[in-house]
Design brief:
Keywords: Ribonucleoprotein, Ribosomal protein, RNA-binding, rRNA-binding
Structural class: alpha/beta
Largest sheet: 6 strands, mixed
Subunit structure: Part of the 50S ribosomal subunit.
Pfam family, one: Ribosomal_L4
Helix content: 25-40%
Protein name: Large ribosomal subunit protein uL4
Strand order of the largest sheet: 2-1-3-6-4-5
Family: Belongs to the universal ribosomal protein uL4 family.
CATH topology of the largest domain: Ribosomal Protein L4, Chain: A
Distance between the termini: 16 Å
CATH superfamily of the largest domain: Ribosomal protein L4/L1
Strand content: 5-15%
Number of strands: 6
Low-confidence stretches: none
């Protein structure tokens, strides 16, 4: 699949670049995507949830009533889970939600996500550029020139560029990231994927 290369003015440079079929033209694997997104979301969870169990509740240990014959459930003391203000039975405790996912599965998931974007014609390739200083107005101008300002935008650079990042930081629905941080969740969540030429070459090196 060939796509046109644009400059930051939105002008067609007259050059075309071929998207690697082994990355942007595979048979998408939805289950690999599911696993990768599940891991991404799990890794973001703090896992700091906690409720007090009956041994952590402050209260008397005196038995409230007789064991049988009271006409209701057996209750030990005021800290019983049966009572309001008592301890929670089998409540959540702090835990780590992260889990292992094979590298090949993660790679397949990213390739599948990129393939879906290619099939939807939601990939724009732009010449490499840089800002001398952070300028949000200039970044907005580039997005308008490329006709992607009305979409949820994910721009991928080959390496970190602080000025470009700061220029886009306050723009709603816009994310700037590097190839090394490219992930399935971000690709799928974007309405359009803007890649610089060097980023596209880096993706080929990483995912092939």
């Amino acid at each position: 699949m060939e796509v046109n290369v644009y400059n930051i003015k939105g002008e067609d440079t007259g050059r075309k670049i071929t998207l690697n079929e082994s990355i942007f033209g595979i048979e998408p694997n939805d289950h690999a995507i599911y696993l990768d997104v599940k891991q991404h979301m799990a890794n973001k969870r703090q896992g700091t949830h906690k409720t007090k169990e009956r041994n952590e509740i402050t209260g008397s240990g005196k038995k409230l009533g007789r064991q049988k014959g009271g006409g209701g459930a057996r209750r030990g003391d005021i800290k019983s889970p049966l009572l309001v203000g008592g301890g929670r039975a089998f409540g959540p405790t702090p835990r780590d939600y992260s889990f292992k996912l094979n590298k090949k599965t993660k790679s397949l998931a990213r390739k599948s996500a990129l393939t879906y974007k290619a099939q939807a014609n939601a990939i724009v390739v732009v010449e490499d550029f840089a800002f001398e200083a952070p300028k949000t107005k200039e970044f907005i101008s580039i997005a308008k020139n490329l006709k992607v300002s009305d979409k949820k935008l994910l721009m991928i650079l080959s390496e970190s560029n602080k000025n470009v990042y700061l220029s886009a930081r306050n723009i709603e629905g816009t994310t700037v990231d590097t190839v090394s941080h490219l992930n399935t969740y971000g690709v799928l969540g974007a309405g359009v994927l803007v890649l610089t030429e060097s980023a596209l070459a880096a993706i080929d090196n990483i995912l092939i």
